[in-house]
Amino acid sequence: MLAKFVFFAKSIFMIEILSGNEAIAQALLESNVRFASAYPGTPSSEILRYGLYLKSKYNLNAYIEWSINEKVALEEALSASFTGIDSAFFCKQVGLNVALDPLMSASLVGTQGAFVVVAADDPGPYSSQTEQDSRMLALFAKIPVFDPSDIKEAYDFSKKAVELSRTYKLPVMLRTTTRISHGRQNIVVQDNIENITLNAEFKKDPARFAATPKLRFILHKKLNEKLFSIASKNSLKFDFFGNILLVSSGLVYSNLYELIQEHKLQDKVTLAKADMPYPLPNIDLSRFEKAIAIEETYPLIELQLNTQGRRNNIVPKEGELSMDVCEQILYNIGVLDSFVPVNIDFKDKPPSLCPGCAHRSAFFEIKQVYSDAIFAGDIGCYTLGVNLGVTDTVFCMGASVSFAFGFNKAFKLSNKNHHVVAIIGDSTFFHTGLSALIDAIHNNAKFLLVILDNSTVAMTGNQKTLSSPVNSLGEAVKPISIEKIVRNLDIGFLEIVDPYDFKKSIEVLKQSKDYIEKNSSIAVIIFRHLCVNTDEGLKNNPIIKVFVDNDCKGCKLCIDEFECQSLIFNEDTKQVEIDRKTCIDCAQCIYSCPFGSIKVLK
Amino acid sequence: MKIVLLGRGGEGVLYLSRLIIKSFDGQNILSSEIHGMAKKGGLVEVHLKIGDYKSPTIGYKKADLVVLLNNSLKKLAYLYSQNIIFLSEKEQEYILKSNPKMLNIYMFAKLAKVLNIDYQKAISLINKNDAEFFNKGFNNDIQ
Fold first, then answer.
1. Is B61's CB within 8 Å of A355's CB?
2. Which of A75, A231, A461, B136 could staple B141 via S-S, CB 3.0–4.6 A?
3. In this complex, do A150 and B54 lie within 8 Å of one another by their Cβ atoms?
4. How far apart are the first and last CA of chain A?
């Protein structure tokens, strides 16, 4: 129904309403990319998912799959490009940090087939730990970067990125932001993607692919020549005709363009746009009264073209450059006569684990036994353990285990005994937790490692993990068992327990505490329960209806300590009620009332 | 036309936005969604622009209409526009009791009326089984 066919000379195209992420996958596969790896991360996750959908739909001979972490994913795709296969790697901005090591070398060594890096930034941030600007990592790694200003450009620039990468045998980055990745627009795409003949060849060239430091110097020189050539063909596009120049790229350009039209500022400002904000050539901007770079989120154009912007506080140094912020900037530079800032008196409740989530049960149990511990948390839904007071640190993927190690050693050096608990999800454990655990075991660290295993990458949209016996398209793969790995590392204490089993969980936690004290070593508990946000998890979840009895004292201990959205306090009756709209009848809250007022409905 | 849709994870805001987009098939559509940490109960915010626009986002006070699926977000809604469409307590109660999944379908029908979307076109976009609640919304049956 949505697809409208448009007839061109040779190919048949159609109009589809795609998200930015879908448009990127569509464009890359249309451009013959046949190898793509990624690790899930908001707002990038839908790129690979849509790639999988297209692979299935058109029965494409392609490798498209989730990887264990971003470094591995980038290396998998990069080496495929060494054989001449056009390849791509997708990540969220902080994922690129994990993959930066191979990227730094990839620019020097270059590629054979195309190699496109898609990094999705999150100005705001809405669901990330940093607001970093991946374009800066393109500059740092010395690779060109495209910055689309809408979904159509995300599609067009993906194709341009493949072409540029092929031409210069250089990795090329496509940077998106949440608003582009999770935006939608009607765009014209091919109505079919055809299989192509793949012929992988690896032409041995140790001076490139195994270059020693001296040869790296030569490669660096070649890279600089490529960048000079690319920059010399790069330029800005100019709109409007005012004396004040605004230079921008990405979504911010679209915001500014629309505001200039809305307020009729066409004769006051000129708006310049960089499709590719790095590498820029020297551009003479002296004909303008002043030049100001307005870009998300770091001053990439500003530094290259030596304009005003963040350095003289015209542009805020943090946060999204939303429509409202852009309007304020226009007012601040004097082209907009009036601006009334909106008084934002809305404060939403903090995010919370889903009702019925087994992580909540595990957190509640952990704090019953390890009440005085330092809780080193990690990245995933269970970051929300902070609401239950069972997460003291959240940093980056896998840091829970290495932090537990560091805390433990620091206290030991000070002759203090402090309980330390590392809490990590199953996918994050595979990602980087495992290597930290091996180091901790080898160096005689002493802490409890809790692996919250819901057999899915829940936070980013329930992608599969390595413990799955099938890949993303349902084909058989080798499932990797967390307990087999842990057992083989000679962990003396390993228990697997369903956190819905309150009694057994408490028992196991107590045993782990005794074990750690007696043996001065690491204990591991795997709390295993399927994610209730998946169809399978919800279908298999026990259904036990509960009610709050009239003897509820209204002490709110359940709400404070168990923190389930389905427990609500009725200000009229001064008692707790079950919110039937959200409750999934897991009955886990009955353990949170010390007076037994939450009862099973019989 | 600039529309902001507000609701919480699990209420079907994204599906509702897809239905509206499909209703304006053939016109230029730009939208942007924020649903970062929104599983069950988190804020979901969709900006939808139909017509000749450049940016997929909408600034405060600039929306023509705000569609509210969860009345706890009324304050946020008023930041975007004074023109808000929301469900009365009676409507909420009725739908949540009989079939909470129909919140968005019911709202889509109400919207179809407000936005002059052809009845036949609108109902053709939804699942046949959802027609009952669509008709309730279209005819303003729950009072």
1. no
2. B136
3. yes
4. 49
